Every structure is written in structure tokens, then in C-alpha cells.
């Protein structure tokens, strides 16, 4: 969250950020009024405590001097001051709760370099990579969802039967490809200096608040044991929407040392998202699903180094696509498409040639976001109590957090199945993945299983 001091000193900057990010459900004037009244009450409380302490200290002196009437008056005055102080403190506590709740709904202030725009149509393409030396593609590239079923490596119908829409099976070489990508991603990032973390999958509400998913985006989460509409407590559990949540909260309410920074952690997790409000978007295949695998990179850094590290993080995510030989582009988010928590964000979008889309490259196909690289500055750190001590004798300060997917597995699989597709319907396995797939050079498919393979029905 933003600091109260920043809000007080820069209300117009906050107002502009709300406008540029398209946030309309925050009454900033009310927030400022609450903060002003809260500060006034805190000052009044300090005055009352000081006056009551002075009055109480006189009572014993007056009694010792035999001034009973004056002592009694001082006692009554002390009781009046106590009652007024309780009233002031109770009101201040109410305003404190209202102010904290309001601050949790104010988004991060965009970095001054972020382009101003209303929506994704005004994002800025920074560069494209890998299009100068593309491999030769079939005359007609089969979309991954059709090819995956033909090869017997993707099974959407049985995924929906077992769990529901938006879930799927990978099988045989498809499952091996998914495992290979996870291991490859982790190995590349180890070379880049990342430490592995294997976090718990359920996360509590406090953790979701710490990284900014809550209270604004509860509809997108999978809650354990209760409906999303019911009020939640700090210790209620939710399925992990991204490893950003557990890994960032590892050090919640702790103080790191300067020698610990920069701290670079990576984690593989399955991720679960309801994708609420995404009706009407492309739902065929494994582009937008409710469970998907991802490797996430999380960085804790000194504030003065965070934007250099941001550029480094982009390069570290790109390295995976460079080694896989997949064409991609870098897109900078404008203010209207910048997330609630981010000060600056780049998306890395891989090229998948199987389906044409509006705004795709001249070669056809579509862009698929495989990584969002974000600098949160101290926004998450304030919510999660993440601090570091520059010197052992100095006061602790809020650090900066960054993260980036490295990468989202299903969409990279889509790109591989379509970009490395051959005329005969097989798929060439990118060379860096072959050691993780038992040396396989091609995905050639699997025979169907069960009576359905013979054209028979599955029910008696």
C-alpha cells in the first residue's frame, strides 16, 4: 500500500494515479477527511493523557497537605479526563480501521516513465525477437487444441469430466513435455543465481493481502471450505493463484539484512484461478484455464537498485525463450492496463502461429503472454511488513519487491506445439528439452485408449 505520509503530501498525485489506472471505487476525499480527523484525535488523545497525568500527580500532594476538597475536585477532573480519553481513543480506533481498509484499496502509483493509456490497446511494444531466423512452418499450422487431441497428448473432455470446464489432462509425451519445461525453467534460473523454494499450495488470507490479491480480487480465487462471498479471516485458506503469494510472504513481518540483498528466489507451483469476469475470451485449449503450472521468480532488493534489477529480471525471463528458439515480443503496460500493485510492468508474449488474432504479427498467429515482469517498489513490502536494515545500527526500511513468471508452462507448450509443428503432424522437440524427455527428438503421438478408440460408445 502507499504510505499515509505520501497520501497527505501528494493527494493530487494519488488522484491522478486513480484516474490513470481507471479506479473509480475509491473516495479519496473521504480518505483524506478520515486521515485528518484521525490525526486530530490522536493529538487530542496525547493532550488528554498529559493533562490527566498532571492532574493525577497532584491528588497525592493535595491529600498530604490536607486539602481534601481540592483533592476530591482533582479526582473528579481525572475521571472526566479518563472518560473523554476513552471516547477519543474509541473513535480514533474506528477511524484507524476505516483508514486501513481504504488504503488497502488504493492502487500503486505508476512510475513516471509508464505510458498513460486507457486500456491494453495503448500498451507499447518495445521490441520483437526471433523473427529474423524462423524455422519453416507447415503451409497450414494446426491449432494446439486440435493437434494435441490428434496426437493423444491433450485430453480436454476427460479433464472436464473429472473436475470441470477449464481443467485438462496432458498424457504421454504431452505430460513429459510439461515436466521437461518445468525442469528446464528451473535449471536456467539456477544458472542465473536463483535459490529454489518449494512453497505450500494453500495460502492464507493474510498472505493474499500482503501481495495485493485481496481485498480487491477475491472473486478470482479458489477458497477452501467456504464460498467466496462470505467474509474471510486472516487464517482462511485459498488455493495458490501464483507462487508470488507464498514466496513473497515467506519473510512477512521480518527484517532482512543488507547482506541478504538482492535475494532471488524461484518456485514451481500449480496455480488456480477462477478467471472471474473473463467470459467471452478465448477458452479453447490450454491458453486460459483454471489450473496451470508456472515457475515464478521473486526478488527482494534495495530500493535504489530495483529498476536495474527490473531490467535484469526481464532478461532472465527472456533467456528461456531465447534458448527454446521461440519468437516473442516485449510489451510495456500503459497505466490503464497496469495491475493494482505494479509501478511498472512488461509482458513477454510468445508467438503462437496456429490461430490468427487481431493485432497479431504480419506472419499471422497470435501473441500469448507467458510472463509479466513487475516492479512493485515498496507497495507489497508495506502491506506485508517486509523490511531490511541497511546497517546494523540503522533503522529498518521497506525493501522493494519484484517478480516475473519464468515462465507460464501451458502457453509455452502451445507455442511449441504450433511453432515446432511439422508437415506430417509431428512436433519437433526443442533441443534444450530433449535431455529432460529421455532424448526424444519428436512427439509422434499415442494410440487412443478404451472402447472409444474403436468408435464405440463409453456407456452401456
Automatic annotation (TrEMBL):
The keyword Nucleotide-binding applies. InterPro entries: aa-tRNA-synt_IIb (IPR002314), aa-tRNA-synth_II (IPR006195), aa-tRNA-synth_II/BPL/LPL (IPR045864), Ser-tRNA-ligase_type_1 (IPR002317), Ser-tRNA-synth_1_N (IPR015866), SerRS_1_N_sf (IPR042103), SerRS_core (IPR033729), tRNA-bd_arm (IPR010978). It is an enzyme of class 6 (ligase). The keyword Chloroplast does not apply. Residues 43-70, 438-460 are annotated as: Disordered. Pathway: Aminoacyl-tRNA biosynthesis; selenocysteinyl-tRNA(Sec) biosynthesis; L-seryl-tRNA(Sec) from L-serine and tRNA(Sec): step 1/1. This is Serine--tRNA ligase. The gene is serS.
Amino acid at each position: 500500500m502507499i504510505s499515509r505520509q505520501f497520501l497527505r503530501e501528494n493527494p493530487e498525485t494519488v488522484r491522478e494515479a486513480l484516474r490513470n489506472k481507471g479506479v473509480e471505487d475509491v473516495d479519496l476525499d473521504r480518505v483524506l477527511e478520515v486521515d485528518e480527523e484521525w490525526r486530530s484525535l490522536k493529538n487530542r488523545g496525547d493532550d488528554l493523557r498529559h493533562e490527566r497525568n498532571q492532574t493525577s500527580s497532584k491528588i497525592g500532594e493535595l491529600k498530604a497537605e490536607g486539602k481534601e476538597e481540592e483533592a476530591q475536585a482533582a479526582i473528579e477532573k481525572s475521571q472526566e479526563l479518563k472518560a473523554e480519553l476513552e471516547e477519543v481513543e474509541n473513535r480514533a480506533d474506528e477511524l484507524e480501521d476505516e483508514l486501513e481498509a481504504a488504503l488497502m484499496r488504493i492502487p500503486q502509483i505508476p512510475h513516471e516513465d509508464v505510458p498513460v493509456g486507457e486500456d491494453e490497446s495503448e500498451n507499447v511494444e518495445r521490441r520483437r525477437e526471433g523473427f529474423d531466423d524462423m524455422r519453416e512452418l507447415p503451409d497450414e499450422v494446426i491449432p494446439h487444441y486440435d493437434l494435441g487431441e490428434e496426437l493423444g497428448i491433450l485430453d480436454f473432455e476427460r479433464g472436464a469430466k473429472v473436475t470441470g470446464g477449464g481443467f485438462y489432462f496432458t498424457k504421454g509425451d504431452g505430460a513429459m513435455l510439461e515436466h521437461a519445461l518445468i525442469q528446464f525453467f528451473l535449471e536456467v534460473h539456477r544458472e542465473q543465481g536463483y535459490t529454489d523454494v518449494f512453497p505450500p499450495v494453500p495460502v492464507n488470507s493474510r498472505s493474499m493481502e500482503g501481495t495485493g490479491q485481496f481485498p480487491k480480487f477475491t472473486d478470482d480465487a479458489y477458497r477452501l471450505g467456504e464460498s467466496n462471498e462470505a467474509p474471510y479471516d486472516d487464517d482462511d485458506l485459498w488455493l495458490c493463484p501464483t507462487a508470488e503469494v507464498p514466496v513473497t510472504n515467506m519473510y512477512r513481518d521480518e527484517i532482512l539484512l543488507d547482506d541478504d540483498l538482492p535475494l532471488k528466489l524461484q518456485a514451481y507451483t500449480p496455480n488456480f484461478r477462477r478467471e472471474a469476469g473473463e467470459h467471452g475470451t478465448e477458452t479453447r485449449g490450454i491458453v486460459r484455464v483454471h489450473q496451470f503450472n508456472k515457475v515464478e521468480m521473486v526478488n527482494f532488493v534495495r530500493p535504489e537498485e530495483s529498476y536495474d534489477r527490473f531490467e535484469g529480471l526481464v532478461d532472465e525471463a527472456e533467456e528461456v525463450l531465447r534458448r527454446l528458439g521461440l519468437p516473442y515480443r516485449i510489451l510495456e503496460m500503459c497505466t490503464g492496463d497496469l495491475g493494482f500493485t505494479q509501478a511498472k510492468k512488461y509482458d513477454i508474449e510468445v508467438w503462437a502461429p496456429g490461430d490468427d488474432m487481431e493485432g497479431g504479427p504480419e506472419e499471422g498467429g497470435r501473441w500469448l503472454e507467458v510472463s509479466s515482469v513487475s516492479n512493485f517498489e515498496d507497495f507489497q513490502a508495506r502491506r506485508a511488513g517486509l523490511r531490511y536494515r541497511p546497517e546494523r545500527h540503522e533503522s529498518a526500511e521497506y525493501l522493494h519487491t519484484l517478480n516475473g513468471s519464468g515462465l507460464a508452462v501451458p502457453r509455452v507448450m502451445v507455442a511449441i506445439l504450433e511453432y515446432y509443428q511439422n508437415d506430417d503432424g509431428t512436433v519437433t522437440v526443442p533441443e534444450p528439452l530433449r535431455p529432460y524427455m529421455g532424448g526424444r527428438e519428436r512427439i509422434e503421438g499415442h494410440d487412443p485408449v478404451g472402447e472409444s478408440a474403436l468408435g464405440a460408445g463409453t456407456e452401456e
